[in-house]
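To illustrate this point, we now present one chain and its tokenised fold:
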Amino acid sequence: MDATTDSTSGSGSEVLWDTIVIGGGAAGLSAGVVLSRARFATLVVDGGEPRNGPADHMHGYLTRDGMAPGEFVATGQDELTRYGGTLVRASVIDARRASDGTFELRLDDDRTLRTRSALVATGLTDELPDIPGLSERWASEVHHCPHCHGYEVRGRAIVVIGSTMAAVSTHLAALMRRYSSSVTFCVNGAEVSTAQRQRLTAYGVRLIDARVTRVETGTDTAGGEPVAIELDNGETVACEAIFVAPRPVPHDAILTMLGAGRDPVSGLVAVDSQGATNVPGVWAAGNVVNPRAQVVAAAGAGSTAAVNMTGWLLERELSAAVSPDGLDVGGAI
């Protein structure tokens, strides 16, 4: 069915979309473009709060290295609408499967949307340790992904702050040593084994067991050490960059509402290699099901899921051609 870029102010409840993509980041927009190019009536619903929004630049995306996240999203939105997709600024607050097998999604502006299929790409929230001054410096002096920001702080004094994500914290402390000869791991209560301590020390990482109490602006900003890590033993560690492993909190409430099952090991909503959940007609892609996915990986997952969705939708149209159900597909809200 043909997609449309028309927009009206109605509730949209009388329209049956081919697909609705929930979340307009890298995964969601990539999926939306693929589905729109395949001539399916595609709507992308986005609340406008991307995970990497606070960052000035993104890295590791071939041909897009150094691009501002806001510019990336704006470019993706232009591509979506160019191919006939529709974008709505809203959040989905409720979702259910109707008796006819379609899905009903309620938005925070009280509109209700109907769709034959759905892709959830709602991302996650990075939950930082509760340390005064840490969140205020998020995406400026404080980072979590060495592959995204490690190169930009190469050769500088780096502090890794331990978190409840102990294994990731330990790995992060070791990996940052690849970027700098001055790496301090403030363990901060993270569980680090004796063997891990020996390996880190031998690798050139300095370990401090005291708890971090505050992150402040350093006293030697002109000399290139803008951050001071205050510890509960009275010591202060000066550095130029901080890395920390936040606890990922996926925005998977919509998937749960629709009955998607979780992986018993990871606790994340389970998807197959094509992004399909155990609920027929529901896919998920990006950080909501893969917290470690960088922008380029999230975009790839969205594209992969969308290709799979086109096949799923096509099969149902072929079946309907033999025994039409009379449903009107497409339109605008």
In short: Residues 1-11, 328-333 have pLDDT under 50 and may be disordered. Helices lie at 26-37, 69-82, 146-149, 166-176, 194-202, 253-257, 295-322.
